[in-house]
Structure formats: C-alpha cells, structure tokens
Amino acid sequence: MKRPHGIILLSILVFSMLTTLSGCKQQDEEKDPPFKPAASVQEIMLSIIDPNADYVWNAVSTVITSAGVEEHSPQTDEEWATVRQHALTLAEASNLLLITGRKVAHDGAETSSHPVELGAEHIEKAIARDRRAFIASANLLHDTAYEAITAIDQKNPEELMRAGERIQQACEACHAKFWYPDEKTPTFPHLSGS
Q1: What is the pLDDT, as a whole number, of residue 35?
Q2: CA–CA separation, 145 vs 43, rounded Å?
C-alpha cells in the first residue's frame, strides 16, 4: 500500500515541476517579446520624432510684428490635449530608438543633409562603440519629453517653452556625438550632470 502512495507523491512532484518549468518558459516569452524593427532610425526621426517635436516646440511662441508682440500658446483644454498627444508620441518614440537590430538607414538612403554628417555605416559603428551613450541619449529625449508633458498638464506655457529647449538640447547633443562628432558644436553641461 505504501508503494502506490509513493508513486502518487512522485507523480505530484513531477507534475508540479513541469508546471513550474512551463510557467517559467511562458514568463520568459512574455518578458522578451520579439521585436520586428522595420523602420530605420532615420525614418523614425523624419516621420515620428521631428514632426512631434516641432509641434511641441511651436506650441508656445512669441511673434513680433509691426502691430506689436504676439504671444501664442494653447488656450483651450482641447489645444492642451493636442500638444500633450504630440509630446507623449515623442516620449514613446524615444523607446523605438532602443530596439536592437534597427538600422540607422536603409541601404542606399542618404543620411547626410550637411557635409559634416557621417554616413549611415559610420553612424552605426559609432553607436555600436558607445551603445550606453546612445541609450542615455534616447533616455534623455524621453525624460525631457516628459518634462514637457508635466508642463502641459499644469497648463504652464513658460515651463513648456523651457522643456522644449531641453528637448532640442537633448537632440542636438545626440546628433553631435553620433551624426557629426568632428564638428564643433555647443555643449550643454547641465545635460551631462557636470
């Protein structure tokens, strides 16, 4: 009689282990979903990051005309919500830059809009050499976009304008490091924490 009882305990133990292993495998699959990066970094910049950053930057402006100074900023809840959508899209687009395996540009695409910019192959090598700095740059873009979101949620045009400047500085610092590292560009000490 003891023998079947031992077999039952052994069966329960084996079943429990298999269930645990199956659950671990399923958690691993859920933890690391396979990404399929189709768009290049260049395409993400041109189609997602640039237009959304432009919208955030242009949400607050001062225009001087012959009639005087005109201040422009979102006025209605709907206008603030629209700017927020653009800032949120910008923040989330920064995560797209971090997906491994994404090409800087597709074969044959021209990445240089100015003679000082490197070609795609050289930019990819620079990113591979200092991936941590590239990740930090993408994270800085994310964080500055969220500074804009905070200003938007507070409906604070002055803070939104300052956040827009920090977004621009984050973009420029990344481009200066990876796209045109040999060009003399202004540095932004507060972005590096020094």
Answers
A1: 85
A2: 19
